[in-house]
Amino acid sequence: MGSDDGFIEIIDVTKAFGPADRRVYALGGVAATIRRGEFFTLLGPSGCGKTTLLRLIAGFELPTSGEIRLDGQEIGHLPPFRRPVNTVFQNYALFPHMTVAQNIGFGLEMLGKPKADIAATVERMLALVKMTDLAGRRTDQLSGGQQQRVALARALAPQPKVLLLDEPLSALDLKLRKEMQVELKRIQLETGITFIFVTHDQEEALTMSDRIAVMSGGKILQIGTPREIYAHPTNRFVADFIGETNFIRARVQGGKAIVGGEVEVPLPAAPAQGEVTLAIRPEHLRLVAKGTAGALTATVGDAVYFGTDSHVHLTLGDGTGIVVRQQTDPDGREGPAPGSVLGVSFPPAAVQVLED
Amino acid sequence: MASRTFTASRLPGFATVAIVVFIALYMPIAMLMIYSFNAGDSIAIWDGFSFQWYERAWENEKVKEVTIRSLVIAGSAATISTVAATMAALATTRKKPFRGQTGIYVAINQPLMVPEIVTAVALLIFFAAIKVATGYQGLGYLILAHSAFCIPFAYLPIRARLEGMDLTLETAAADLYATPWWTFRRVTLPLLAPGIVAGMMLAFVTSLDDVVITLFVKSAGQDTLPTYLLAQIRRQVTGEVNAISTVLLALTVILLTTFFLLTRKRS
Ligand SMILES: Nc1ncnc2c1ncn2[C@@H]1O[C@H](COP(=O)(O)OP(=O)(O)O)[C@@H](O)[C@H]1O
Ligand SMILES: [Mg+2]
User: Is B177 an 8 Å CB contact of chain A?
Assistant: First the structure.
């Protein structure tokens, strides 16, 4: 096995629930390779199978088919207590009858570590999550943010090869969530442990991850760095789910996409003849004078002002609605008048051709 | 009017009925307690305050004997029924609903539904056959019978506690390298403990108080406190019976109050 890729290999994993005659596939054939030390995020809307995939890696569920390998060893059929993998649960799941320190030491105790080692590790973990003062507290006397830290310390204490985090920040308010995002990232870098992080929040995924797997309907649609996913979505769902996107239909002819019968866009890998959907981010579109070469003709609808920028809604000749994001003018001039006809231009590199 | 809810306390005569029932429930008990402190021999004429009946009961060797027997039976039956009820509760709440689950509920709660006298007669006949076959005459029959009818009383608070328990705690323990046995020892059992203690107390009180089944099942010379009291009253009612009953009442109230506090504490 290589040391940097193939640390965790998820190979054609499916998971079905329910009796044989009414099977529901929560995961329908998922494959992914996660690298050692990576901050890997599963991103997707509620119900897409993120938790199920995490539970399969943790061992709380067994796959219907497929394999899960960790460091070259098949672990997909081991019980959870035999996997060097720990979980931070969405509701924290702290033991209410134990103190903070006892919670953190639990995993090491179950592994049969000597008392002195446990005490030392607990001490280190408390310092890592900045909870040293509260070691003797009962967990029901802690705030949500503090419980979160204890849950994290408890999962990190046995030094797992992989840490799984299921929407760990979703119960926190916005300010605390931002703080914990930074904390999590710091802790991941300090410990060097591979994190698999689940969220439905695209912004959270983009800011924290080394790589993201975008999921929908029990499948992984695309895996890539935040930049790749944002700049080069390969799929309509991904383009739509991550950030805002304009979708424009185009006809393919001679290796070029022809938009609205007027503008030709060279395509990097020309598909066969037919129609394709192009995705262009609102911030890559520019409003120019009507009739400018290479610009689409569009009629201005309304504009929404956001302070630093504004979103101008326009309609193309064929009725497609598009949005252009414009930086606000320093001199505070009004945007384009509704009803006026303008050109919309874009650099060819900003165009993504989607498989849909 | 549709929006007005039915309020029983507005019915005519409600207050009268309430007072009559209240008197019927508590007056006799109050009288029993008061006359346990009577200095005279009568149980109807107040003759001044004394502890004489308590002293006499305390010195009565027979009372001592039947009290110890009652405590042995109640203690054993409470322990056995609580262990059985804990296992039954784990088996009926921890699994996904399975075929025949309703049947198991019915089986566990059978003593609450079958008339006690029927159970008593059935046990009498059944144990008689065993006594003949084995020759064993000991307390085992009483303990076994009490254990059986105490199970539903132990089962209910344990099951309530289990149902209120967060299952992800057990998942978390497994995640942290605890085998199923250690998960049970270190997480399930400690969290279940208040329910188990409550169930045990309820079972203990139920056993301590039983007359019907004990009367039918006991061999000669195996009187328990309640059957002894019954036999005493048939002969001659003395203040000793009042004193013993008052102590029994106090013990039951203490146990049931503890039970109440245990089950009321946050789940
Ligand atoms: N134990 C289960 N039994 C039946 N269906 C389940 C079970 N767990 C999950 N599912 C179904 O699998 C799908 C994916 O669920 P989940 O993995 O929880 O999604 P996510 O975490 O992305 O919101 C959902 O449709 C859900 O209803
Ligand atoms: Mg989920």
Answer: yes
Atom 3, ligand 1: which residue's CA is nearest? A17
- List all residues 6 or more positions away from B199 whose beta carbon is below 8 Å from its beta carbon: B82, B85, B86, B153, B154, B155, B156, B157, B158
- Note whether B178 contacts A95, CB cutoff 8 Å: no
Question: What is the whole-number distance in angstroms between the Cα of residue A26 and the centre of ligand 1?
Answer: 6
Q: Let me know if domain B61-263 sits in CATH 1.10.3720.10.
A: yes
Give the pLDDT confidence of A273-325 residue by residue, as tens digits. Answer: 778 888 999 999 999 888 888 888 899 988 888 878 888 999 988 888 999 99
Packed helices A115-128 and A100-110: angle between N→C axes, nearest 10 degrees: 130
Ligand 1 lined by A51 (C-beta under 6 Å): yes
Residues of A in contact with B169 (CB under 8 A): 93, 95-96
pLDDT above 80 for B145: yes
Residue ranges of the domains in chain B?
Answer: 12-50, 61-263
Instruction: Confirm if A334 and A214 have CB atoms less than 8 A apart.
Output: no
Q: Which of A58, A91, A111 sits opposite B175 (nearest CB)?
A: A58
Closest CA to A107 of B173, B190, B221, B110: B173
Q: What is the mean pLDDT of chain A?
A: 89
- pTM value is 0.81
Tell which residue, B198, B196, B194, B191, has the closest CA to residue B255: B198
How far apart CA A242 and CA A229 sit, in angstroms, is: 8
A180-194, B33-47, B116-130, range with the lowest pLDDT? B33-47
- B267/chain A closest Cα distance in angstroms: 11
Please report residues of A whose CB lies closer than 8 A to that of B164.
none
Phi/psi for B199 (5° steps) reads -65, -40
Summarised one tens digit per residue, pLDDT across range A190-249 is 999 999 999 999 999 999 999 999 999 999 999 999 999 998 898 899 999 998 899 988
Residues B36-58: pLDDT tens digits?
898 888 777 888 888 889 998 88
Residue A213 near ligand 1, beta carbon < 6 Å:
no
Mutate to test the pocket of ligand 1, among A42, A50, A52, A201 (most ligand atoms within 8 A of CB): A52
